[in-house]
Design goal:
The complex is a heterodimer of chains A (110) and B (209). Chain A has 110 residues and is mostly helical. Chain A has helices at 2-9, 11-48, 53-75, 84-107. Chain A is built from 4 helices and no strands. In chain A, helix 2 packs antiparallel against helix 3 (53-75). The termini of chain A are far apart. Classes of the chains: A mainly alpha (110), B mainly alpha (209).
Chain lengths: 110, 209
């Protein structure tokens, strides 16, 4: 704690600390990106391999959801502090969107 | 901190996009907008899923006849990579390195244009090969509305980023334009989020019937 306080009072030390933190975050982003590419390749490969649709549909949807979570939380920084409002807005949007899709898929044809 | 104040790498604040009141407001407002966009695209997805393969006669092409995975894979890679390059741009923005930020934004725009080119080729191909148009069937309308709306977002996102790059080319970074660059990059990521669901729900699930 004492160390942290010293850092914020000393512009040079806090500058180097921030540079290091940004570089670390960048490494995380590249790892995230690699995993997203990996998930995409798997999803396309699963369809290309011609598995049963009862396996493929839930599988690719799951991969899409994981990818989007990566995108939102790492690329769009929703994992950072100060994103409570962003989370409220996005989750409300997802909730309404989900209900809309559910409605259209059930009421229209059944 | 005044919006026009000059900074150095040492004095540049930790979260430049939220260092001013205007930046904070933009940040909040933009996330609200993205929440709304989520609902908008969800309703287009819902429409597409309800009307998928609803064609008047068997002579009309259905999803499995139309889509080709290699092209969709290429488009996905282009857009996904452009998402990473805009992360690089924001990394340099946070380090107060204007030149490198502009370079990475330029690469982002180039990749985005590549994506757009592929999409234009795709739609053109559907029209000439399959006579699959906006008015040919309910399936056609739903498909072009959903994918076209996303394409429209790509066009808007590209114009936005290009406008910011040109407008601020000689100004350099300050607290007035840092939020603008940050939000444009958020928008670009959101376009990729939507595309992830488009390639999954429309193309991959379309291929398996």
């Amino acid at each position: 704690m004492a160390n942290l306080q010293q850092n914020s009072n000393n512009p040079k030390a806090s500058y180097e600390y921030r540079r290091k933190k940004h570089a670390e975050e960048m490494r995380m982003q590249v790892i995230t990106f690699t995993m997203m590419i990996f998930f995409t390749v798997i999803a396309f490969a699963a369809v290309g391999a011609g598995f049963s649709k009862w396996f493929i549909i839930p599988f690719v949807l799951l991969l899409a959801v994981v990818q989007v979570i990566f995108q939102l939380y790492y690329f769009m920084h929703m994992s950072h502090k100060g994103h409570e409002a962003a989370q409220l807005f996005m989750y409300s949007g997802v909730l309404v969107g989900f209900i809309t899709i559910l409605t259209f898929l059930t009421i229209i044809w059944w | 901190m005044a919006a026009e104040q000059k900074f150095t790498q040492q004095t540049w604040p930790e979260s430049p996009e939220q260092a001013t009141l205007e930046g904070k407001n933009k940040f909040l407002g933009f996330w609200l907008f993205l929440g709304g966009e989520t609902v908008l695209f969800a309703s287009l997805f819902a429409t597409y899923l309800a009307l998928k393969d609803s064609v008047p006669s068997d002579s009309h092409a259905k999803a499995t006849d139309l889509f080709e995975l290699p092209l969709v894979f290429l488009m996905t890679m282009l857009l996904l990579t452009s998402s990473l390059t805009s992360v690089f741009a924001m990394y340099h923005m946070k380090n107060y390195n204007f030149k490198k930020m502009q370079t990475w934004l330029f690469i982002t725009v180039a990749l985005g244009l590549g994506f757009l080119g592929c999409e234009i080729y795709e739609f053109n191909h559907y029209y000439h090969e399959y006579k699959h148009t906006f008015t040919s069937s309910a399936f056609g309308s739903a498909f072009y509305t959903l994918v076209g709306f996303h394409g429209g977002h790509v066009v808007f996102g590209l114009s936005w980023i290009i406008a910011l790059m040109i407008r601020n080319a000689r100004r350099g970074l300050n607290l007035y334009n840092a939020p603008k660059f940050y939000l444009a990059s958020l928008y670009w990521h959101f376009i990729d989020v939507v595309w992830v669901f488009i390639f999954t729900v429309v193309y991959l699930m379309g291929m398996v019937g």
